[in-house]
Structures are given as structure tokens and as C-alpha cells.
Design a protein that fits this description.
The protein is of the alpha+beta class. It folds into 3 domains: 33-97 and 140-223 and 327-415, FAD/NAD(P)-binding domain (3-Layer(bba) Sandwich); 101-136 and 225-323, D-Amino Acid Oxidase, Chain A, domain 2 (2-Layer Sandwich); 460-632, Phenol hydroxylase, C-terminal dimerisation domain (Glutaredoxin). It contains 14 helices and 27 strands. Strands 6-5-13-14-15-12-16-18 form an 8-stranded mixed sheet, sandwiched between helices. Strands 1, 2, 8, 9, 10, 11 and 17 form a 7-stranded mixed sheet that branches. Strands 20-19-25-22-21-26-27 form a 7-stranded mixed sheet, covered by helices on one side. Strand 26 (605-609) and strand 27 (615-619) form a beta hairpin. The protein is globular, with a radius of gyration of 26 Å. Bound molecules: flavin-adenine dinucleotide. Flavin-adenine dinucleotide is lined by residues 40-46, 64-67, 75-76, 78, 142, 167-168, 208-210, 214, 234, 318, 347-349, 355, 358, 360-361, 364.
Length: 636
């Protein structure tokens, strides 16, 4: 974490200096007439977007929520490793790691062949494969997660706060203007303003307003999907039980009473149970059956026999039926139309799935992490508005993959066990599928297709473990200036900046005339260099593209004073030298990043990483022309 760049300020460094133009807030303050971005909904999708935009006080952002305040409990709780990597960029991953339950092992229980009315443990699977991510898979109450994003917003230069109690009831788009073309109608949902309606004009609107999204409906989007006609209950409880694995994630299948999923939660006592209830008729909804908390507890006790559950307190509960659905576009542009989008949907507003694969919150936030930097680039004039077309394309493909995988998983969860599985002669399908899905459920399987944003894999052999289209996979390094052992990926903040990681060849210790020196000099001085070309007067040299170098030598073998000036830039109001751009391999045994990520030791390489942490290009260290061409297609 770097701070004091623009001068010393005491106090909490997470609290940024407030921008002078921030809005006055309070129930009696008027709503703004015009904003750059209006976000509907303060779920994970909306807050993740708002937390990014809040860092830019020059972008007027408004986030409206029909409820009067943040939720206090319930809903989703699973945060996969990829989302934790993203939290690192927002600065609260360590806080989350401290507070939460870490899913290390998942246990599987099935009917005991000797006494089929009883369950028996049949296997355990490591939940996060070694070196799949430096982050744990964790469980946290969704309300707490909201608070962490709200804190980032509140501490930002914009001091952004949601406008609670306002519901989006409709919107229109004026295609004849670029001047705040979307008019959003808001209705007071709490009565504080006598149920009045107001209109706000926006340049862009993002509907993060959940499965019944008013924004989606306003742009003609429909959710298409199907239902498994199976009622499930979910309860967060404080309870005692003689079931031995209650502090592990457990998938439990009984012979004839259905299935239970146990999700231990933060704090050491509370846990969640998903309990399979009755099959539904095709025309029936779970809500029609009027299941009660007692029905759920009784079903759980039948399923986990010979063990039992003594519930002391029900913290939260809900009944639902499994459904999967998706819209055919995530923006307001219809097939065949050649224009740039103005309205987007994200999260549950455009795809819904079964909660048990724990993907809902994760995918929702990943949607808006994809959209955030694109909106910032366009609104700051750094990219053409056509960049926004890539959002729907990239995320729709991912959402379809999610719905398909989730579909298969939900079916397997509800399927009866076979005789071979019960006899132990065949590994249960549920365990096989679980292992197959691990990369997917960790969120690290996402791979975007080749496009102008993701280069063809011409030079992929230079970094086999950093695949173009997939997220940049962090690995340990040591910072040269102060010998700090750290993860290379942790330098990336949610700040809409691009990163170029230059990995030096074996013999290159940054002597004058070496490939790293030549690259750094070209990047710093040549008129064609993207660092030079997209830098505005007054910008720091790393304002848009942040260049870092990693050497194969250990800490003792390199001299900081030999580094090129681009890697020791002077930035900020005071022109202070930045000492944190150069790294070497970890000499303390945590692993060699060149080996771990398949970086070519003889030639080295450059890895270009998008602001949302996806590998966009892999190039040789002298690939100046292709690097310039890559950025020329995106930035202006
Ligand atoms: C009752 C319930 C239980 C759930 N349980 C689980 C679970 O057990 N496990 C799991 O993984 N997932 C669960 N989910 C799903 C999970 O919460 C979502 O996948 C995740 O929250 C999606 O985030 P989101 O931001 O897209 O939408 P949401 O979290 O749904 O947020 C949408 C927000 O928009 C607001 N809103 C809606 N309409 C408007 C409007 N017109 N104007 C202004 N604001 C509006 C809503 O009040 C809400 O705050 C549950 C969802 C619900 C509703």
C-alpha cells in the first residue's frame, strides 16, 4: 500500500482526501438532475461497481436502492478465490481473511450400505487446489460484504453513499443525443418523500437490481430458463449437533429423505444448511407450499440420521425452488444494431442460478469488475465508447457457461445415489463432479475469447502459465527496494490502470543496453510508446499504464541503482521517487515465479494485464510494434 505521495496526512490512510465537488447528502437534499452513471441496486454487483467509480470524483455517480438501508443478514455467503483476488485490489482482502470461515476441505456423506437409513462419510476433497490461487475460498454474510464495499465508497475522494429508498420504476433512452440521453424515473419507496417520483438524467445506467430487474424490463430484456421443480430451504442457525463434520463444508445424501448441504460460517458457531424439501409440480412454486422453519429442521434431522440437530436460534431462513435463467443480451443494443450501449444489466438482473454452487455473488461482482474500468476509460475520454460493447459479449459467454455448469450440478445434487456408489465400488458422481468443477467454482476457469482486447496467443509459449484471456495468476516475488516478500498480483489496485509486467531474461541484471533497459527506455521516451502516447499533460508517467519488472536474480545479486529511470519514476504533486516497481525471484523458498508461471528463462517476456486483472497479451521483450498496435486499438 502506497500513500503520502502528495504530501503527509496523518490518520487512516484508507480515507482519501475528499474532492471539493462532492454532493451534499441528507434526506432533505435534492437528488441530482444529471449524473454520469446511475446504478440501480446495492447488492454485490451494484456496490462493486460503485466502489470503483467512487475513486473518480470527476465521474458523477449515483447508486439508488429501493430498500431503506443495507441488509443485515441472509442471502449469499460464498466468496471464491478469484473474487478474493479482486478484493485484494479493493484493499479489504486481509480484513475478509481475518473475519471469515475458510473452506479448506469438503466432506461427502452417503447412505451407509450396512444401514441405509443412516449416513456415513465416504470422502473428503481438498477444496482449493495447491497453487490455484494464493487466496482462500471463504464464507461471509452478504450484508458484511456490502459493508466493506460501502466503506470503500465512503472513504473515497467522492465520499459516495447510496440513495436509499428510491426505486427505479422506468427509463427511456433518447437516441438523438449524447448529452445525458437516459432518463430514469425514480419513485420514493419508503414514504419519506411522500412516495414522490423524480427523474434523473444519466449518460449510462447499470441495472444491478436483482432477478426482477426493472432496468432489464425497461430495455426489453427477458430471463429465459427453466426450473428443476424442487423446493429447497436454507437456514443460518446456531445449533448443537453430534454430526462430527459440522465445521466442514459437507454434501450429505440420504437414501430416501433427500440431501443437505452444510456451510460453516464466520465466527465459529453459526452455520448454514441447505435442506432438500419436496418435489414440486410443474405449475407449482415453492412459496405455494407454505413450508415452515420447523419443516426444514425436521427434514434436516431425517436426512442426517443417526445424528441430530438441536437448533438454538434461527438467524435467517428462506424457501426457494431451483431455477436457471439468462437474458440474451446484457445491454440495450439489439442484435444487428450498430451503436454503442447506454444501459447495462449485471448480476442476478441478467442471470440467475442455484445458490448451492455459491456462484451468485461472485459472478455478479465479476460482471461489474469487467464493466467498471471500461466505463471509467470512456467517461474520462481515454477510450472510444465502442469499448462498452465488449461488456455484454465477454460476460454473456461466461454467464452461459455458468448456467450450464450450475445446471448439471443442481441435477446431480438432487439425483438419487446408485447401488455402485452405495456399495463403494464406484466413486460417487457427486465427488467426481465436484472435483471436475473445482477450477470453475473457484472462479479461475474464466477464459475470454480472442478479440481486439485479448491478443491471439502468438507468443503464449513465453509464459505458459499466464494464459491470454485468463486472470493474471499471481506468484511470490521479493521487492528489490526493501526485500519485502510479497505476491506480484497484489500490486494491482482497482484503479482502472493497465499493467505491463516485464520479465527479464536469465542474463539480464539490468545492465545498460540489456533488453529490460532498452524496453524501459523505449516505453519512457518513444513517441509510439503507449506510456508516452496515452499520457496527458500533468499525468504521472504510470497514470494509465503501470510498468513493473521482475528479474531472475535474487535480492543480493541485483543493484537498485542499475534500474532504468522508468522503473524509478518521480510521481505525484511532490515528484517523489516511487521505489516499488522492481522485483526479483523469491530467495526465501516460497517458489520461483519463472518456474511457477512457465516464463521463458532465456528470453523473458512482457505480460500485458487489463485493469480487471485479465492477461491481455504476451509479447517478447522487444515486441515494441505489436505492443503499440495493441494499445492503439483501445486507447486514445
Ligand atoms: C432471498 C434470497 C436468498 C438468497 N440466498 C442465496 C444463497 O443462499 N446462496 C447464494 O449463493 N445466493 C443466494 N441468493 C442470491 C444472491 O444473493 C445473488 O446471486 C446475489 O446477491 C446477486 O447480486 P446482485 O447484486 O446481482 O443482486 P441482489 O443482491 O439481488 O441485489 C439487488 C438489489 O437491487 C435492489 N432493487 C431491486 N429492484 C430495484 C429497483 N427497481 N430500484 C432500486 N433498487 C432495486 C434490491 O433491493 C437489492 O438490494 C439469494 C437471493 C435472495 C433474493
Amino acid at each position: 500500500m502506497q500513500f503520502y505521495k502528495d504530501g503527509f496526512r496523518g490518520g487512516n490512510p484508507d480515507i482519501k482526501e475528499a474532492a471539493p465537488n462532492r454532493r451534499n447528502r441528507g434526506v432533505n437534499e435534492p437528488l441530482p438532475e444529471k449524473v454520469d452513471v446511475l446504478i440501480a441496486g446495492t447488492g454485490p454487483a451494484g456496490l462493486c461497481l460503485a466502489a470503483q467509480l467512487a475513486q473518480y470524483p470527476d465521474i458523477e455517480t449515483m447508486i439508488v436502492e429501493r430498500m431503506p438501508a443495507n441488509i443485515i443478514k441472509g442471502k449469499a455467503d460464498g466468496i471464491n478465490t478469484r473474487t478474493m483476488e479482486m478484493f485484494q485490489a479493493f484493499g479489504f482482502a486481509d480484513k475478509v481473511k481475518r473475519e471469515t470461515y475458510w473452506v479448506n476441505q469438503t466432506a461427502f456423506w452417503m447412505p451407509d450400505p450396512a444401514r441405509p437409513e443412516h449416513i456415513k462419510r465416504v470422502g473428503r476433497v481438498q477444496d482449493v487446489a495447491d497453487d490455484s490461487s494464493e487466496m482462500p475460498h471463504i464464507l461471509i454474510n452478504q450484508a458484511r460484504l456490502h459493508e466493506l464495499f460501502l466503506e470503500v465508497m465512503r472513504n473515497s475522494a467522492s465520499r459516495l453513499e447510496p440513495d436509499y429508498g428510491w426505486e427505479v420504476v422506468g427509463l427511456t433512452i433518447d437516441p438523438t443525443t449524447d448529452d445525458y440521453p437516459v432518463t430514469v424515473t425514480l419513485k420514493d419507496a419508503t414514504g419519506i418523500n411522500w412516495w414522490a417520483t423524480r427523474t434523473v438524467r444519466a449518460n449510462y445506467v447499470v441495472g444491478c437490481d436483482g432477478a426482477h430487474s426493472a432496468v432489464r424490463k425497461a430495455i426489453g430484456g427477458e430471463l429465459h430458463g427453466d426450473a428443476a421443480h424442487q423446493a429447497w430451504g436454507v437456514m443460518d442457525i446456531l445449533a448443537n449437533t453430534d454430526f462430527p463434520d459440522v465445521r466442514q463444508k459437507c454434501l450429505i445424501s440420504s437414501a430416501s429423505e433427500g440431501n443437505v448441504l452444510i456451510i460453516p460460517r464466520e465466527g465459529g458457531y453459526v452455520f448454514r444448511m441447505y435442506v432438500e424439501l419436496d418435489k414440486l409440480r410443474p405449475d407449482e412454486k415453492a412459496a405455494h407450499r407454505k413450508f415452515t422453519q420447523e419443516d426444514m429442521i425436521a427434514a434436516a434431522n431425517r436426512i442426517i440420521r443417526p445424528y441430530s440437530l438441536d437448533v438454538k436460534e434461527i438467524v435467517w431462513w428462506s424457501i426457494y425452488d431451483i431455477g436457471h435463467s439468462i437474458t440474451d443480451k446484457f445491454d440495450d443494443v439489439s442484435a444487428g444494431e450498430n451503436r454503442n450501449p447506454r444501459v447495462f444489466t449485471a448480476g442476478d438482473a441478467c442471470h440467475t442460478h442455484s445458490p448451492k454452487a455459491g456462484q451468485g455473488m461472485n459472478v455478479s461482482m465479476q460482471d461489474t469488475f469487467n464493466l467498471g474500468w471500461k466505463l471509467i476509460h470512456v467517461l474520462q475520454g481515454r477510450a472510444d465508447a465502442s469499448l462498452l460493447r465488449s461488456y455484454s459479449k465477454e460476460r454473456l459467454t461466461e454467464a452461459k457457461r455458468l448456467v450450464e455448469t450450475d445446471h448439471a450440478w443442481a441435477r446431480i445434487m438432487s439425483a438419487p445415489t446408485t447401488q455402485a456408489e452405495r456399495d463403494g465400488t464406484e466413486e460417487p458422481r457427486i465427488i467426481r463432479q465436484f472435483k471436475q468443477n473445482l477450477e470453475f467454482t473457484g472462479g479461475t476457469a474464466v477464459k475470454y475469447d480472442t478479440s481486439y482486447l485479448f491478443a491471439a496467443p502468438t507468443h503464449q509459449a513465453l509464459a505458459t502459465g499466464e494464459e491470454i484471456g485468463r486472470r493474471f495468476h499471481s506468484a511470490p516475488v521479493v521487492r528489490l527496494s526493501d526485500a519485502k516478500q510479497m505476491q506480484l498480483g497484489h500490486i494491482a489496485e482497482a484503479d482502472a490502470r493497465w499493467r505491463i509486467y516485464a520479465f527479464a531474461a536469465k542474463a539480464d541484471g539490468s545492465s545498460a543496453g540489456s533488453a529490460i533497459h532498452k524496453l524501459a527506455d523505449w516505453l519512457e521516451n518513444d513517441a509510439d510508446s503507449p506510456v508516452v502516447k496515452y499520457r496527458r499533460t500533468g499525468d504521472d508517467i504510470d497514470a494509465v499504464i503501470d510498468v513493473r519488472a521482475v528479474f531472475q536474480q535474487t535480492f543480493e545479486q541485483l543493484a537498485y541503482e542499475d534500474m532504468p529511470s522508468l522503473l524509478r519514476p518521480r510521481t505525484g504533486k511532490l515528484g517523489l521517487q516511487d521505489h516499488e516497481k522492481v522485483f526479483c525471484v523469491d530467495h526465501k523458498g516460497a517458489g520461483d515465479i519463472f518456474d511457477l508461471r512457465g516464463i521463458d528463462r532465456e528470453r523473458g517476456c512482457m505480460i500485458v494485464v487489463r485493469p480487471d486483472q485479465y492477461v491481455a497479451n504476451v509479447l517478447p521483450l522487444d515486441g515494441y510494434r505489436p505492443l503499440a498496435d495493441y494499445f492503439a486499438a483501445i486507447l486514445r
